[in-house]
Amino acid sequence: MRLSEITKKLEKAFPKDIAESWDNVGLLVGEKNKDIKKIQISLDATEKVIEEAVKNNADLIITHHPLIFSPLKAINDSTLLGKKIMKLIKNDIALYSMHTNLDSAENGLNKYVAEIIGARESKIIAENYRDVYKLAVYVPKENHKEVLKKVQETGVSLEGYDDVSYSTECIERYRISGEDNAHTVDNIKVEVIGEKGKMFQLLNEIRKIHPYDQVPYEIFSVENRYLKGGIGRVFSLEKPVLFKEYVNLVKEKLSIENLRIVAENEEKSVKKVAVVNGSGMSFFKKIKKLGVDVFVTGDIKYHEALDAAEEGLNLIDLGHYESEHFFNRLVVRELIELTDVETYIMNEKPIFKYR
């Protein structure tokens, strides 16, 4: 199966455009039309992970954390990052990453973890909305179906619907400079609404098949708000429990032996819970306004914990790895129907050890 077919399936569930602006997701190393027979799923692209992929003849590594975040000035063996990239290229292994787009997706990692620790229904904490545009193209009737085919091939999707367009019959009237008589042509106006980048991509594709040298079109931003996802989930437990009891429930459900807590009162009743997997303390102020009883996240720093304690908000620090290694399950869930591709999971153990 071609890599582009695999990424198209993944991006339907975890669209790249819902990633945070600072993030770097998608195909980071490799050729999009490469033939894929074996996929390794790993949280991080460490040297051991890449070596395992080489050993197992994997064609593709799918990670949660992107290997490349910042622009590169050079790729050579003088840096760890350079060595990793060179090994991937040398062994013809593609690297594809899904990070905050997988966290934020409708059925992404934040929601998945929330459901494990007691959510029946949950709401997004920090909502993000799509930058939506409308493209209207005028085309002769005989070329109408070709344009609709391009809409389908481009993969325009919005609010759970694919390939949505609106076609209206219209008459084009024009007069060539220097001539007396006007000409008329029966046209179809095809209108499509979608994410900004997709609209310009679609326009470029239509230009390839449109019979006119100068394609008549309109493209503009619309005020419609379409939720594209968001970080974190907030939910209410079915019934209140003591904080110390909820800590034990979280440890059991997530199979975590040790975690850190911040709690002035472990006998405090817990009903409303917020969760942000990975490092979530940047959302502390927003979460405090939600009136939650406990915030579940990872990578909590000392002064962040101190502030939370003084604010009276109990914290559960799962650890970064511990809150995100479920990434593997979500990827497998999306790829399980691919019968002609072998998938396996390779994760290293958490980097931190407890004595």
UniProtKB/TrEMBL annotation:
Residues annotated for a divalent metal cation 2 binding in this entry: 64
SUPFAM superfamilies in alphabetical order: NIF3 (NGG1p interacting factor 3)-like
GO cellular component labels: cytoplasm
GO MF terms held by the record: metal ion binding
Domain of life of the organism encoding this protein: Bacteria
Alphabetized UniProt keyword annotations: Metal-binding
Binding site for a divalent metal cation 1: 65, 103, 320, 324
PANTHER family per UniProt: GTP CYCLOHYDROLASE 1 TYPE 2 HOMOLOG, NGG1 INTERACTING FACTOR 3
Family label: Belongs to the GTP cyclohydrolase I type 2/NIF3 family.
Protein name: GTP cyclohydrolase 1 type 2 homolog
Species this protein is from: Ilyobacter polytropus (strain ATCC 51220 / DSM 2926 / LMG 16218 / CuHBu1)
